Amino acid sequence: MFYEWLAPLGDEFQLFNLFNYITFRVGGALMTSLIICFVIGPKMIDGLRARQGKGQPIRLDGPEGHLVKQGTPTMGGLMILLAVIISTLLWGNLSSPFLWTVFMVTAAFGAIGFYDDYLKVSKQSHKGFSGKIRLLLEFGVAALAVWIISGAMPTDGGFNTGLAVPLLQNTWINLGALFIPFGCLVIVGSANAVNLTDGLDGLAIVPVMIACMALAFIAYLVGNAVFSDYLGVPFVPGSGEVTIFLGAIIGASLGFLWFNAPPAMIFMGDTGSLALGGALGTTAVAIKHEIVLAIIGGLFVLEAVSVIVQVASFKLTGKRVFRMAPIHHHFEKKGWAEPTIVIRFWIIAIILALVGLSTLKLR
Question: In the chain, fewer beta carbons within 10 Å around the N or the C end?
Answer without folding.
Answer: N
